[in-house]
Specification:
single chain; about 190 residues; alpha+beta; Lipocalin; ten-stranded antiparallel β-barrel; 2 helices; about 15% helix; globular
Length: about 190
Amino acid sequence: MKPSPLSSAFAALAFSFSCTFTANVFAESASPAASTSRPDGQHDFDFEIGKWNVHLKRLLHPLTGSHEWVEADGISVTRKVWDGRANLEEFEAKGTSGPIEGLTLRLYDPVAHQWSLFWANQRDGVLATPTIGAFHDGVGEFTDFEKIEGRYIWVRYQWSQITARSAHFEQSFSDDGGRTWEVNWITDQTRID
C-alpha cells in the first residue's frame, strides 16, 4: 500500500524536526558554557531507589477515542547502578487485563545533563526507543518519537508529585505533533522500604 502524500509529508516534517532537535542537543552538549550552566541531574532519580507498591491505570486503546481504562496493582523495585549514573527498575503488576512484567533502564549523560529511559516488557524482550529529558522544578519530562500501531507519534513521560514516600508517573501520546496529549498510563507509587 502506497503512503498518502499527507502521511509522507508528515513523516518528512517529523524527521526534519527530529534531526534539528538532535543537532541542537549535540551542539548544546558540545559547548562548555552550555554544559556548565545546567545543574547536574545525576541524582534526579535517587528518589526511585527502593521497593514500591504500585497502582496502575492504563487506557486500553490509546488515540482511538476510547475511554476504557483497566487497573492493576503490583510491586516495583529499583536498584542503583554506576554510583547513581544509572538505575534498573523491575516492575510486576496484575489486574483485570492480565499480568504486566517489565523493566526500565535509566542512563544519565553527564555532558548533556539528560536521562535516557528505556522500557522493556517480558512479552517481547525488546528495549523500546528511549525517552530523553531531564527534571526541572521537581517535574521530570522525557519525550521521544516512535512507531506505535503502525504510525509514528510523540511519546511523553512525566514524573511529578515526588516525595520521600510517593511518586506519580504519566505516559501520554500525541498524534498531532505535540499540540495535544492523551494520557494513557498513570502510575502512583507508595514506598515499602
